[in-house]
Amino acid sequence: MAISLGFHIIYSCIGMVMPFFMAVSHFKWIKTGEPVYKNITQAWSKGVAIFFATGAVSGTILSFELGLLWPKFMEHAGPIFGMPFSLEGVAFFIEAIALGFFLYGWNKFNKWFHWFTGLIVGVSGIISGILVVSANSWMNNPSGFNYLNGQYSNIDPIKAMFNGSWFSEALHMTIAAFAATGFAVAGIHALMIARRKNVVFHTKAFKIAIIFGAVAAILQPFSGDISAKNVYKTQPAKLGAMEAYYHTQAYSPLVIGGIPDTAAKKVNYGIEIPGLLSFLVHDNFKEQVNGLDKIPVNDQPNVTVTHLAFELMIAIGSAMMLLGVIYFVAIWKKKSWLLRNWFLKLFIIATPLGFIAVEAGWTVTEVGRQPWIIQGIMRTSQAVTPMPGIHYSFYLFTAVYFVLSIAVIFLLSRQIKMVPELYDR
Amino acid sequence: MLYVVISFLFLAIVLYFLLGGADFGAGIIELFTSEKNKSNTRKTMYQAIGPIWEANHMWLVIAVVIMFVGFPVIYSDMCTYLHIPLLIMLMGITARGTAFAFRSYDAIKGEKTQNLYNHVFVYSSFITPLFLGIIAGSAISRQIDLHPASFAAGYIFSWLNYFSVAVGLFTVALSGYLAAIYLIGEAEDDRDAKRFIKKARLMNIMALLFGGLVFIAAELENIRLAHWIFGNPVSLVAVIAATISLVMLWVLIGRGKKKIIRVFAGFQVTMILLAVGYMHFPYFIMIKGGHNLNLMQLHANAKTIDDLGWALFIGSFLILPSLYYLYYSFQTSPNHD
After folding, report:
1. Which residues of A touch B80 (CB under 8 A)?
2. What is the extent of the structural domain holding A107?
């Protein structure tokens, strides 16, 4: 399941963000009439079609997988946190309809109607994404029901959907999707510019993608701060594991890097900055932050994995923010940088970074919640299917996603290879 | 509100059988098309189902969502005891959808890769409705055992029995039949239209044969199918209506009535589903020993059902008009891009 979601998260990020890139270049084409923008739109739309088809089937798999792997979890949780899924079904449906119009509607409809259908693909994609993340946030911050002696009562699915964590998680994920997709797309175009292939085409495409990516990367730390404060309030064990913060103290230090040693309850090779964790959580340097020592050991997640994933996410996020700043410096002050090889190389290297950060962040939120599948209510071990041999299904799902990903990469590389033939007229 | 939610559930299932079925059927038609006509069939199909196939499959997602939000216990049991056929169906859906998208969006149209996509597409188009039918058959076959004595009894023979497999084959034939009827109206020229008419007739005969097989298999498995269907007036009327529309269809199919035959074909399949659905209602899944899963009892709490009903209401106001416009827009004139 985790692996399926890990793949799905990439498909869906690209599927929900790319339509906005397309909408921008489509808009420019309608406004300026420059054919290069039409070519970019069409080239991207083929990428979106590939990702949407894959994302749609992988979404269908997931909706079943919830039941196939976690029937006991769904039996109890379905009615409570299912509301965002049913609305997501609607949004997804609209996205599929709009995509049909958009992909097959060239020269068929009024051009603004056609443009609008493309925009709807993106908007309903974002809405779908937010709804699904809201379902996930409920697992982190369950609300909308009473729980007594193993019984769920007083269920209110709307309250569950708007639980205390939905906003911070949805904001963080949406911005992450823009940053990761923006950098990934820009990186591929940067590679083509560096190879001096169809430079006009790729430069314009690069610009649209990187502006989205850079703005998102610069905004992301603020949403990260909102998220971290919320995590501390609702899941102190997760925050403790993220920061590998074992011992409760005033002037709580922030540990940067380092490898946690769970047995000795300390972090080796890390850099400690006293007071900074207090500041991040409480907005002052003194107030004590509760650490892992306040949490029973068998309710703690794996600190090493959570901490390292968290550090990786932060490191990449900072690098991307820096690249975003470099890009804006380049367009405002140093236009000559834009075609320099070192400049392009930076962005080429950054191609996969955003998605690595997304996966790391996903690891933080999921591993950081363990041993719970519903924080404080149901343990993951209680949720799994009673059917024997379930690990074979698990291997099968993993294999399917693996094959799909290879196929998608293969097809995209062929799309990119064909850019000169298809669009260089 | 519970009735609203149940209606939507059945609506989504019927629409998935009709639209998704026709969609799978297109692949089945391709499978049974001679080599020399294949490229023509593919071209017609690409134009006919390209813009709409993804929307067609959303009905399955809607049905699943209604199941797990509104009827979590039934969903959970279904996922546990029909795990294997569901898994195979999912693999089929995945292989099919991606192969269809990949074959049109692979920028380099190499012979080898196209061949691979084609093969994956046609075989998964066959396997998916087969297992969809097997699952539907298993739901009413009384072979699901909530206290299985062995792995095989619980997770294999729950769906691997004559009856379920016969329903699976019947579903395949119906899908091919729906697709052929649909494609008649999308054919580029008369020659193609004639080919699809021939296919439609063939698939129809197949469906009748497999339909007969379903009744025989039911007898073998001690399922009193005939008794259920002919024993209640609604199912009986539905079956008679399906038969009448079948006769009408055979009369009209040769006369070039492209649109009206779609209505008849769709009506016919809907009636079959209605007959089966009604005779079991409110039971959704029949269980060995009789503790059938009842939609009227095993539903979620009232507040959830209310909210779900509203969500579906609002959703259908957004979805149905735009879906209609999508079909309408891509129906008659092929896209000349």
Report:
1. 71, 385-387
2. 2-238+307-423
Provide the shortest C-alpha distance from residue A339 to chain B (in Å).
Answer: 28
A269 assigned to some structural domain: no
Does residue B16 belong to any structural domain of this protein? yes
ipTM of this predicted structure: 0.78
Which residue carries 């269980």 as its tokens?
Answer: B287
Task: Spell out which residues of chain A touch residue B45, defining contact as CB-CB under 8 Å.
Answer: none
Are B79 and A385 in contact, with CB atoms under 8 Å apart? Answer: yes
Q: Are B75 and A77 in contact (CB under 8 A)?
A: no
Report if residue A249 sits inside a domain. no
Q: Would you call B78 and A67 a contact, using CB atoms and an 8 Å cutoff?
A: yes
Record: contact A400-B70, CB cut-off 8 A: no
B7-41 per-position pLDDT tens digit: 888 888 888 888 888 888 888 888 877 777 777 77
Q: Is residue A231 part of a domain?
A: yes
| Residue B271 falls inside a structural domain | no
Count of domains forming chain A: 1
**Is residue B151 assigned to a domain?**
yes
Taking CB atoms and an 8 Å limit, are A385 and B83 in contact across chains?
Answer: yes
Q: State how far residue A91 is from chain B, nearest Cα, in angstroms.
A: 8
